[in-house]
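User: I'm writing a tutorial on reading structure tokens. Could you give me a worked example: one chain, its sequence, then its tokens, then a sentence or two explaining what the tokens reveal?
Assistant: Sure. Here is the example chain.
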Amino acid sequence: MIATFAFPQHISVRGRMAGAVAVCLRKTVMSRVADPIPPEISGHGADGKPHVAYLPLIDAGHSDATGDVLGVGVLVPEDRADLTEAVGSALAAGFQLRLSGAHLRLRRRSVVGTPLDAQWWLRRSRRWASVTPMVLDRFSGRSEEEAEIGRACLRAGLPEPTSVTAGRDPMLRGGAFLGRRDLARQEKGPRPFMHVLLEFPTPVHGPVLLGAQRYLGMGLCAPRP
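And here are its predicted structure tokens:
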């Protein structure tokens, strides 16, 4: 389940803020959920289990894409009605995110046929491209990057891709160009990060989230025609 929330229409949030947006969203949800916070919401102690993902919804993947962050999404693991209720109650009345010193009010909103529509991320396609760069799960040499991306797909429950293209720049119109400091989480011994274009042997159903920071919106992919 993806619940989507929009920034006010007169507000422009640059795509480079995607990591900061995801981190602020997680903190906001955690501050509004009663203790003890489930590990699937905080991420602490949830290793090996699907948990809630906090997504910056970037205007990308269509001919008029601006690359701005239009709002946020909260992805709750399937068959977890308890988490859906907890997150839904926490955000039902709307909420604020503090970005660059400003308090921005978000309300639940879905706009059909845009990245603010959950179905935008749930479509089926053989070809997917990252909207935010993917952070590799482990260190690997350049010669092993494509293989590691393939393994990340398997870890996410996807088939192994038949084609992998990796690069520094986005491969989808509107994709976010992030520097290392823009990622959602700063790690010791920084892992490689990159944009990816993937082709699978058969159409796969979204959402497609890949890599070490996928629960903070990094490695978020959209279908590419």
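What the tokens reveal: The helical segments are 18-32, 39-42, 81-91, 118-122, 145-155. The chain has a mean pLDDT of 91.
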